[in-house]
Design a protein that fits this description.
Number of domains: 1
Strand content: over 45%
CATH class: Mainly Beta
Structural class: mainly beta
Largest sheet: 8 strands, antiparallel, barrel
Mean pLDDT: 89
Shape: globular
Helix content: 10-25%
CATH topology: Lipocalin
Number of strands: 9
Low-confidence stretches: none
Order of helices and strands: HEEHEEEEEEE
Distance between the termini: 22 Å
Length: about 140
């Protein structure tokens, strides 16, 4: 599976197709559809995973007004059995995050990031789910 997953990840450019965040507070889950509120020029941006473990995040066909940065770069790495993907990208503000690989095929990539956050002296769990489509 390891070589197959690397090959699939590198074979395509990836465009975000869905993104949700689930906040679990006091036994209740609140799901927010982040993708639905993303402006059109941000929906078609492209992530490219490169063989040297770098990644490139570029504007798609629709360019957001005022964006003059050009492509942004980061890094990525699979864990040993390729069930987790560590990503350090500009969107993460220089912090590496580990994502569980839920599914990876020649059509889509689904990853999940689970984290703990503190609010009003309580610890809660948040879950971010991302689905990318292969271009």
């Amino acid at each position: 599976m390891a070589d197959v997953r690397t090959s699939l990840l590198l074979a395509h450019d990836w465009e975000l197709a869905a993104q949700t965040t689930t906040f679990n507070r006091e036994g209740k889950a609140e799901v927010m559809d982040i993708y639905a509120s993303t402006i059109a020029c941000g929906r078609d941006n492209v992530t490219k995973f490169n063989a040297n473990n770098s990644l490139t995040y570029s504007e798609g066909k629709l360019t957001c007004a005022g964006n003059t940065q050009g492509p942004l770069t980061g890094s990525w790495a699979f864990n040993k059995d390729q069930t987790a993907l560590t990503i350090n990208s500009p969107q993460l503000h220089g912090a590496a995050s580990v994502f569980q690989v839920l599914d990876l095929s020649d059509k889509h990539l689904q990853i999940r990031h689970t984290y703990t956050y503190r609010q009003d002296d309580h610890d809660y769990t948040g879950v971010e789910d991302y689905t990318f489509k292969a271009l």
